[in-house]
Amino acid sequence: MKATVFLNGRFVGFHENGERLAKEIREKRRTGELPYSINVSFYSKTGEVFINSDKGRPVRPLIVVKNQKSTYTEAIEEKVKSGSTHWFELVKSGIIEYLDAEEEENAYVANSQKDITERTTHLEIDPLGILGYASAQVPFPEYNMAPRVLMAAQHTKQSLGLYASNFNLRTDTRAHILFYPQKPIVQTRAYSELGLSNRPSGENFVVAILSYKGFNMNDAVFMNKSSIERGMARSAFLRSYATEERRYPGGQKDKIEVPQEYAQGYMSEDAYSYLDEDGIINPETIVNGDAVLVGKTSPPRFLKEISALDVETEKRRESSLTVRSNESGIVDGVIISQTTSGNRLVKVRVRNTCIPEIGDKFASRFGQKGVISLLLNQADMPFTKDGITPDLILNPHAIPGRMTAGHLLEMLGGKAGSMDGSLKDGTAFSGQKQEEFEKILLSQGLRPTGQEYLYDGATGKRMLATIYMGVVYYQRLHHLVSLKMHARSRGPVQMLTHQPTEGRAREGGLRLGEMERDCFIGYGSALLLHERMIDSSDKTTELICQNCGALGVFDKIKKTKYCPLCESADVEDVEMSYAFKLLLDEMKSLHIWPKMKLKERG
Asked: Is residue 326 exposed (0-12), middle (13-18) or buried (19+ Cβ within 10 Å)?
């Protein structure tokens, strides 16, 4: 059977023996006759050969196995250790090759030397290689359910830390800086090899697994208020604002200055009181929502012809740069520069200290995320016989259902590391074992199981059960309640539907969806439904003709109400949603004449 050959997805011809062709291409690649970036795969069921050499394919390195033996021998390993041979020499000599997703279909990969069988074609360089950049930082991932490791990788990307050492010189739109970042006690080999301890993104917390006072139900967590007051998990939020003096057709341009009273949209004298003479705010000034950072005026939007007799000066409009309405802080820095087109550019960075509060989100490296539900003084927290109080109390129900045994193992390893003052290895498939941690704890005079007797801070009585307590690396995530808090009574509405605008940034309304409406109807709370759907939304009063059912009008000059269609004066005021009135208008535009039939309210 002839095999169909495809090169980079395009049909190029047929070959008598597809399997032999794929084998020959692989051999030539391993001897260096073909580039190492070429991949080939043969599908025996469909008789197709796919050869790929295009850019953008994710590839991964594997050791080639020949005759049930790894080509990466002990002799070559010694050469690598001594530095006499390097990576690309191994690739050129066919010991290591890069496989893409397509060629992996033809490969049978062993995890370690002892797993090699007759069918094995490749060997993993290290089992850690199956994990990516973020998931390789998770300690003991083999003890956890796969979706939790995936979730942990997502949390790593959301964590606050030292994202760049030159953050003071940068003007990122938004940035978070953790004040006292620490490197984890339980690390993976990938973490240390990548030098991530120079850019840490979390802190080591003393954690007790305890259902306490009912405040940490589900994923909620308790935190030690005194630890937070000492600076634990404290961070700064930086936001940069920018404005420039734009040029407009006709020779007009913006001007950075303190706006004059005659400017259209002038705020008030107080609003500009923080500005310097040049119209720019000074660093270290405390600013609240809508405070002016850079005063700016622009030419009017619609230019009118100014005659010789028109002595009136040009009416400029106010277009100052202000702080977001729902944020506040301290001006951290001001940068005055020029754009590529030669316009003056001003950037202002505002910082705000974010102290952990109720509603802030934390997560360990195992997808165990939770929000703070209660901040307890150290005096009210449970404590051990040595007087150690936990920084965080986690609910025990968070562990068994999610099957994150790695979390428990890190607690044990973190505790052992704290006691003997050394970092512990939590690398996937090759990290330290539970027995090692137990020996260390036993030698330090602690229970090898990691459990402790705790005493209630409020009563001083010993708790009846032993509590599992250890040290875990916790990350503060950028979902801060201070940046999400939102409420409104009345505010801006959309022009088209007269309904409240959408989103926190635009001072939008709180959405009540169809399902919530159904609940109100099912419950029978008609007045609440009316308030949410009409009064708090787009209530309007329209005139309806009793005679023909069309919308009536009000003549402001004659002060009379009438129907423009049948000229009847028999019109009634009817309260309705503006969106409904809009629907009637849109139906009319489709040549459909909707009629409103009125009857007395019974």
From this structure: middle
DSSP class of residue 308? Answer: T
Q: What pLDDT is attached to residue 508?
A: 85
The candidate with the shortest Cα–Cα distance to 533, out of 517, 522, 556, 554, is 517
Which residues touch 284 (CB under 8 Å, ≥6 apart)? 330, 331
Name the band, by pLDDT with cuts 50, 70 and 90, for residue 308. low
What's the pLDDT score for residue 67?
87
Q: What letter would DSSP give residue 270?
A: G
In DSSP notation, 146-204 reads HHHHHHHHHHHHHB-B-S-TTGGG---SEEEEESS----SEE-HHHHHTTGGGS---EE
Q: What predicted TM-score, i.e. pTM, was given to this entire model? A: 0.82
What is the CA angle 504-506-511, rounded to 5? 55
Domains and CATH numbers, the chain: 3-125 (3.90.1070.20), 141-234+358-476 (2.40.270.10), 236-302+313-354 (2.40.50.150), 486-602 (3.90.1800.10)
β-pairing, 203-209 with 462-476?
antiparallel
- 357-369: per-residue pLDDT in tens? 999 999 999 999 9
Neighbours of 105 (CB within 10 A): 12
Categorise residue 221: left if φ over 0, alpha if ψ from -120 to 50, beta otherwise. beta
Three-class SS state of 403: coil
In this prediction, residue 372 carries a pLDDT of 94
**Which residues are annotated as catalytic?**
219
The amino acid present at 59, given as its one-letter code, is V
- Kindly provide the residue ranges of all beta strands, DSSP E only, lying in 245-295, ordered along the sequence: 255-256, 286-287, 292-294
Burial 233-254 (b: 16+ CB within 10 A, else e): bbbbbbbbbbbbbbeeeeeeeb
